[in-house]
Amino acid sequence: MDRRTFLVAGGILAAAGAAGLVRALAGDGSETLGQTVPRSSAATTIQSAPTSSTTSSSTLAADTSTTSAAPAEPTVTTAQATPTTTTLQAALVVPIICKTAWGARPLAGALGAHSIERMTVHHTAVRLDRNADAPGQIRGHQAFHQQSGWADLAYHYMVDANGNIYEGRPFSAPGDTFTNYDPAGHFLVCCEGNFDQQDLPEAQVASLAAMLAWGSDAFGISPDTIAGHRDYASTTCPGTTLAGIMENGSLQAAVVALLESGGVELTEACGDEGAALVAAIEAGTA
Ligand SMILES: [Zn+2]
Fold it and tell me: CB of 33 within 8 A of CB of 266?
């Protein structure tokens, strides 16, 4: 199920054309999301900048579940038959902590479907005073949401104070809400914390912007569609400080900058790797 989630995104990315293709190829091919690019493109060879004169080129890997979380931002050059090379900017690679890794419960019901048209930012309205508590708080949110009759956590992705990103409800399904708006069509990214009470950590903003940049590219929607929950319903969500960086345009500007510098590629932190990352978060070291 987790894989399928990303394969859906990969298909969209592949369909985005050459620019998306280059981004999908950025970095070590084994770290990209498997099957994000049609095999017919495998003739394309890229080389990382430090080895551009050697034979250590990386070609498209077949499907692989390898999910290294290396946050590389390599400059990628294309080596074609012509003697000239073109320097292209590569995607920012962002690891996502799999649901299994953070201890999510299985789905508690059927999920619907929707077509994403906009991106909406939330907070949990629960203070996060120690980031080590983030995985536990997220488990608690999911449990509460399921006890409330929903199939899963209400949101598609969660971001903690240190910028760790957690996989939530599959984005192929609309979210859920206790408030008076219809979340169908919304890509929901939720920051752990209460931003009516807390300042906004830079790392959390950076990862929020990365998820929104990824969403903009994956779903073919403009950063102009970024808004806060409060723009649709009677709520203070996502809180004063988080709403503030949308109202002054700085969050949208950060998203545009990411897109212009090569976009964002997601990788999965699952299995032992994901468990180790969650353990480090809970130990206060990540
Ligand atoms: Zn909200």
Answer: yes
| Distance in Å, CA 178 to ligand 1 centroid | 9
Same domain, 78 and 151: no
Which DSSP letter does residue 41 get? G
Q: Which domain holds residue 155?
A: 95-282
Domain count of the chain? 2
Gap from CA of 269 to ligand 1 centroid (Å): 26
Strand 46-48 to 76-79 pairing: antiparallel
pLDDT band at 222 (very low <50, low <70, confident <90, very high): very high
pLDDT of 123-175, one tens digit each? 999 999 999 999 999 999 999 999 999 999 999 999 999 999 999 999 999 99
Structure tokens at 191: 């920051």
* Cα 255–Cα 126–Cα 105 angle in degrees, nearest 5: 85
Output the CA 156–ligand 1 centroid distance in Å.
12
- Prior bond to 238 cis, omega within 30? yes
Report CA(8)–ligand 1 centroid distance (Å).
Answer: 25
Ligand 1 centre to CA of 181 (Å) is 10
Is 120 found in the same domain as 201? Answer: yes
Cα 267 to ligand 1 centroid, rounded to whole Å:
26
Which of 90, 117, 148 is the endpoint of a domain? Answer: 90
Near ion ligand 1, which residues have CB within 5 Å?
122, 229, 237
Indicate if 162 and 181 belong to the same structural domain: yes
How far, in Å, from the CA of 232 to the mean position of ligand 1? 9
Residues 44 and 104 in one domain: no
Distance 237 CA to ligand 1 centre (A): 5
| CATH classification of the domain holding 180 | 3.40.80.10
- Please report the pLDDT score of residue 87 as a whole number: 56
| Radius of gyration of the chain from its Cα atoms, rounded to whole angstroms | 19
- Residue 244 and residue 130 share a domain: yes
Residues 111 and 71 in one domain: no
What confidence tens digit (pLDDT) does each residue in 10-49 have? Answer: 333 333 333 333 333 333 333 333 333 333 333 333 333 3
Rounded to two decimals, the pTM is: 0.72
